[in-house]
Amino acid sequence: MPYKLFISLRYLFAKKHHNAINVVSAVSALGVAIAAAAMVCVLSVMNGFGNLVEDMFSLFDPDLRITAAQGSSFRTNTATFDAIREWEEVESLALTIEQNALVRFSDRQTTALIKGVEADFNKHNSIDSTILDGEFMVYDGAFERGLVGIGLANTLGIGAHFVSPMRLYAPKRHERINMLAPERSLNQEPIWIAGVFSVGQLKYDDAYMLVSIEAAQRLFEYADDEATAVEIQLRQGASVKNIKRKLRKTLGDSFVVADRYEQQADFFKILEIEKLLTALLLTFIVLIAALNIVGALSMLMLEKKADIAILESMGAAKDDVRDIFLLEGWLISVSGAIAGVVIGVILCLLQQNLGIIKLGNGSNYIVSAYPVALQATDILIVLAIVLLLGLLVAFIPARQVNKY
């Protein structure tokens, strides 16, 4: 063991002549530990909320989504898409049509994002688990049926068991609007409500309506093999990253292939920015806690004036003496950082498994307790931040050792 580290460890654990030095050192380490534990807990909770929202999106979003790089729609009756459908990793390949339309029910009307889906759409995702009333059905053999988000249902004042249909209106695709008789320039489609769903995201609950892809093709005047997107669900264990790369190579630059993260890129970017800002704020708190080391180290150097003189008389250079006290201050940060990370991990595991801290009374939230997701990268980042700040703070008094 290098003698500088040996002396620093001795100074850290040995009893001092003035008990105040021990107290200040302990308070410094405790402050760093609390700040480090807070960083681990807060970042883990943010991860938990991110995973929770990602799970909500996964109820509606496919593993991979193919759209046209230019234009709003494309033909799918091609050898390329037929070949992709037969890939071993592909569980299902479904055509969808998404476009805005006017929705009217009785004396109420609003715009909605109409999503045309195939009859077995619910077999390839978890949409059934989001249905609050009714059932998944887009055609009953006689009438066109549809599902609406709960926010849209409240806006229109409709429910799953209403016998009157809604009416969807969309401009005719290849005609100009007749200003004298504008209603003649609109396609319309009657839809009977089969169910009301709630994903837990306003983006879907307040705007989306699911109808059969045939109804959407008639409403928006698309051909039978025309779609605005192709949604792909992969078999369990298949690598999304590898299949996305393979699809991009197969389809070329004419198509855009997006995974679930890219489908909700704006949301996840905002989440990353929030996490970064939170980490910066907590870093500032760690810095304030670490500044206590300045006082502890200054008091220690005053007490060890005789030791400093002895070390120098024995041939120790001034830089070596400085390094001893620099290591001493840094060891205080190390002990606090390790203790804080251990405490933070224990608290996160308790919350993750026992749900100790609740969200209100638990009845008005999607989950009853704060979600937590520990990530090794966050723990490493916390350790790096605390140890780096501890080293920088310890350097402030250590460089003044020549004055003692």
Count of DSSP H/I helices: 13
| Overall geometry | elongated
Overall structural class, as computed from helix and strand content, comes to alpha+beta
Uncertain runs are none
Radius of gyration: 32 Å
Series of secondary-structure elements, N-terminal to C-terminal? HHEEHEEEEHEEHEHEEHEHHHHHH
Measured as a percent range, the helix fraction is 40-55%
| Mean pLDDT score | 83
Which band does the percent of strand residues land in? 15-25%
* Strand element count: 12
Strand order of the largest sheet: 3-4-9-6-8-7
Q: What number of structural domains do the residues give?
A: 2
Give the biggest sheet: 6 strands, mixed, barrel
How far apart the termini lie comes to 26 Å
Mind explaining what this structure looks like?
The chain folds into two domains: 3-57 and 268-403, no CATH class; 64-262, no CATH class. With 404 residues, it is α+β, with helices and mostly antiparallel strands. It is elongated and about 100 Å long. The protein has helices spanning 3-13, 19-58, 79-85, 150-156, 202-205, 213-220, 240-251, 260-263, 265-290, 292-303, 305-313, 318-354, 376-398; strands at residues 64-68, 74-75, 90-105, 108-117, 131-134, 145-149, 166-171, 186-197, 208-212, 226-227, 229-234, 255-259. Strand 3 and strand 4 form a beta hairpin.
